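note to self: dont lose this again. the chain is below, predicted strucutre after it. 214 aa total, dont forget to put it in the shared folder this time
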Amino acid sequence: MILFLTIVSGLAWTAVYVEAIRLGFRERTYAIPAAALALNFAWEAIYASRSVATGLSAQGVFNIVWGLADVLIVYTFLRFGRAELPAWITRPLFIGWAVLLGLTSFAVQLLFVAEFGWDDATKYAAFLQNLLMSGLFIAMFVSRGSGRGQSLVIAVAKWIGTLAPTIVYGGYGNSALILGLGALCSVFDLTYIALLWRAGVRLRNPALPLTHAL
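---
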């Protein structure tokens, strides 16, 4: 059952990344919130590298796939993300902010390893940044005021991709912390799904403002 849930989670998150890449290039934007993207990229780069060094598992294979996919998502952020910001933020300021965000994310991931060790750090960091991502997706929905870079595929796959490891590490692993963080992720993820579903007309036509769809 644990291997099955690991594969479900891996396939669901792979669907998130594939859809994020597709939307990013099609709609000339980035489809994963910046802070969550930076943390995800750092997490996957670190743990994919460790998977290669220590021997591949099912989770390790997915870590590598996700890390490679994240390279393309980061590219969409660097290529199109400047347009999402106020006009006074110049291209050099945007790149400087992106570099700082990236370096900070790698530092945070390594601090988790230093504090908790490799086995626990991978889980605690993943669920905390997952909860952050869940909240930021809702913030993206509100701030953009349109359906650019968002889809129910991403929303539903993210929810499933988080729920499966919540059962593995929170339920089977008997961790109240992970179970609680996973449950909170589900609350935010289901809220985001409901918002996208409710705004279905707007999502089919991203040019429509929120007020025309809600």
